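Hey, resending since the last one bounced:
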Amino acid sequence: MLMRMIAAGGVPLVLDDVRPADVDNPHGYFEFTPVKALHKPGNKEWLGAAQGKAIKVISFLLPHLPAEYHYKIIFIRRNLKEVLASQKKMLEHRGEPGGVASDDEMASTFAAHLTLVQNLLATRRNCDVLYVDHRQAIEDPAQVASTVNEFLGGRLDAAAMAAEIDRSLHRNRA
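The structure tokens again:
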């Protein structure tokens, strides 16, 4: 959702379309495969070429962003019950088994992880972070688009960004 908004606003994206759109994400995943190796030693020079562009990075990989670059991170906060319900549906659609932990255990683990990442980001001078509430983005896309536009310098098309919110995709509600 957010990557579509940012692209509509005028920010170029870094992605490779290796993972195609599907029933769970009909607009696509907006991923760039090298991001998945941020936690491993190796070539991260692609980050330098990505300056001024948007890249999707999951929360588990944010602590591995190299210190030599400055990042503007837009962090989506979503109800954990909705996240878990969405993940379960995705696994079902793929015919993959679910996790062995209960939803409560998963929610507790994920909440602790998010707190850790948010605390870490608060200490990193090379990271500016804007927290966006997922439900607010669905319910008031114009306000969220305006806030994101301001965070990213105020030169984006906020109306085009807001128009990208597809409320029909908010299927797993808590």
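Residues 2-169 form one domain.

Sorry for the duplicate.
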